[in-house]
Amino acid sequence: MTLAYARFRRQMAALTGAALGLDRQYVAESRLSPVLRAHRVADLLELTRIIDAHENETLIREVVDAMTNNETSFFRDRAPFDEFRERVLPQLMAARANVKRLRIWCAAAATGQEVYSLAMTLDHEARALRGWAVEILGTDISGAAIEVARKGFYSQFEVQRGLSTSHLLRYFHRHEEGWRVNEHLRARVAFGEFNLLSDPSLLGTFDVIFCRNVLIYFEPEVKRDVLSRLAGVLAQDGFLFLGSAESIGEACPAFAPVSNESVWRLRSRPQPKLALA
């Protein structure tokens, strides 16, 4: 590992929270190569200098986009969506029967497949949800990924990953060389850029938060901070969904597992830290 890569790892951790592997320099340089060429940056060392100096914010955003893992698919792992439809949604509908409002946040939405999977799941419950205000917000640190999500256009390969034929024909239409999400479904979701290292309180409170397959990239301290912020915007009787390979453990005592370690609820609202005199 070179000194330039060590410096770059610290910078990415500060910008995104993600801990790049010590042995991943070659992978990082491969991903960054097109960006460096486009901006006429000589090498990783020069890039680290530019990042520290904040000389080119466009370049920095493109670097973050290049280094972000946007691996996702429709109905990924399937079980969380079944859990949401069969157990979580009925509980929340009973608890919100008077206000008839639900807010759902996909906190690491990548290119949008998870968001649209939830929208399709809720559409199947359209009759029961008639008269309800349902908001689905998808956010990601990568502006490029969010732009893909907003367009809702996916290749044949992407729609084959997780989508049944019935879902494809009901919610998508042929567009150029691929498939595009139908307008009525796209109108039900919203997308925006958001860094999980930031304060989510301006987004409001959510009944359900999907934050799947992202905490595994964070160092323990960053993971604790992110979980604490998520706890702060989750309704007291809300639900947090994590990836199948993720667990909170003792990272955030505010959460307790529900039926398995992929679904969590709040034990208690975390208390704000008092400033020292």
Description of the structure:
With 277 residues, the chain is an alpha/beta fold. The chain folds into 2 domains: 3-67, no CATH class; 79-266, Rossmann fold, CATH 3.40.50. Helices cover 42% and strands 18% of the residues. It has helices spanning 3-16, 25-38, 44-53, 57-67, 79-95, 113-123, 143-151, 156-160, 165-171, 183-186, 220-233; strands at 101-106, 133-140, 153-154, 172-175, 178-181, 189-193, 206-210, 234-241, 255-257, 263-266. A 7-stranded mixed sheet has the order 6-2-1-7-8-10-9. Strand 7, helix 11 and strand 8 (234-241) form a beta-alpha-beta unit. Helix 2 packs antiparallel against helix 4. The chain is globular.
Q: Please count the beta strands (DSSP E, at least 2 residues each).
A: 10
Radius of gyration: 20 Å
* Multimeric organization: single chain
CATH class of the largest domain: Alpha Beta
* Domain module count: 2
Question: In percent, how much strand structure appears in the residues?
Answer: 15-25%
CATH fold label of the largest domain: Rossmann fold
**Share of helical residues:** 40-55%
Q: What's the architecture of the largest domain in CATH terms?
A: 3-Layer(aba) Sandwich
Mean pLDDT: 92
Question: How large is the count of helical segments?
Answer: 11
Distance between the termini: 42 Å
Low-confidence stretches: 270-277
* Widest beta sheet: strand line-up: 6-2-1-7-8-10-9
Order of secondary-structure elements: HHHHHEHEHEHHEEHEEHEEE
The secondary-structure class comes to: alpha/beta
In this structure, how is the largest beta sheet organized? 7 strands, mixed
Shape: globular
